[in-house]
């Protein structure tokens, strides 16, 4: 999946070193707080996880590449992939500090949505997160996902309970959401310093 600012490509072991370096720039530990994996004590530990992840088909993992320097700076995946129902979820979203709050971050999510709806013809695209993860819920709403509800005591991970907030985009909402993304991503929407002229505003029919 190729964009203007980033590419979304299959996760490969060759990405390990640069990804570990990028993730290591997070000095707060917040990057892994709501992830089922991590933090990783060493590059070797992360490499072992990547080796396993590369062999998985669900979740299906991708690396986000900065087109300006060809460096891997993030990971995301499709999971709970159901071709028979036309449903998939986006998850394992791990954005290094170099990727967070950038045009690349938004474009990567747009490219993954576009693949699901335009190329695969799916009916529903899901986003799920820990109910305590306020930034993730805020991101879902900004990207056009509608809130579907709260699943209480859905999981236990890292030794604690997780209530899961569910969000989705439906195929009927996709044309308007796609148009909003493409208007926002247009180079004309950014000044010479790369600052947006207009914020991304998405109002899905269901949300």
List strands and helices in order, with pairings.
Layout: E1 6-10, H1 16-23, H2 43-54, E2 60-66, E3 71-82, E4 87-95, H3 103-119, E5 124-130, H4 134-142, E6 146-157, E7 160-170, H5 174-185
Parallel strand pairs: 4-5
Antiparallel strand pairs: 1-2, 2-3, 3-4, 5-7, 6-7
Helix pairs in contact: 1-2, 3-5
Keywords:
alpha+beta; Aminopeptidase; 7-stranded mixed beta sheet; 5 helices; 30% strand; globular
Describe the structure.
The chain has helices at 16-23, 43-54, 103-119, 134-142, 174-185, and strands at residues 6-10, 60-66, 71-82, 87-95, 124-130, 146-157, 160-170. The chain is 28% helix and 30% strand. A seven-stranded mixed beta sheet has the order 1-2-3-4-5-7-6, sandwiched between helices. With 207 residues, the chain is an alpha+beta fold. It has five helices and seven strands. The protein has one domain (6-189): Gcn5-related N-acetyltransferase (GNAT) (Aminopeptidase).
């Amino acid at each position: 999946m190729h964009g203007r600012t980033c590419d979304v490509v299959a996760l490969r072991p060759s990405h390990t070193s640069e990804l570990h370096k990028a993730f290591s720039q997070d000095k707060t530990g917040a990057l892994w707080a709501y992830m089922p994996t991590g933090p990783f004590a060493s590059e070797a530990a992360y490499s072992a996880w990547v080796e396993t992840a590369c062999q998985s088909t669900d979740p299906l993992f991708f690396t986000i590449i900065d087109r300006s320097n060809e460096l891997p700076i993030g990971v995301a995946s499709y999971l709970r992939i159901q071709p028979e129902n036309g449903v998939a979820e986006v998850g394992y979203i791990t954005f290094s500090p170099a990727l967070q709050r950038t045009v690349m971050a938004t474009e990567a999510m747009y490219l993954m949505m576009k693949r699901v709806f335009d190329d695969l013809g799916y009916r529903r695209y899901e986003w799920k997160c820990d109910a305590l993860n306020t930034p993730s819920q805020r991101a879902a709403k900004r990207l056009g996902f509608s809130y579907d509800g709260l699943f209480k005591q859905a999981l236990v991970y890292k030794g604690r309970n997780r209530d899961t907030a569910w969000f989705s985009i439906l195929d009927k909402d996709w044309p308007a959401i796609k148009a909003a993304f493409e208007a926002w991503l247009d180079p004309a929407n950014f000044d010479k310093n790369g600052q947006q002229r207009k914020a991304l505003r998405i109002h899905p029919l269901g949300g």
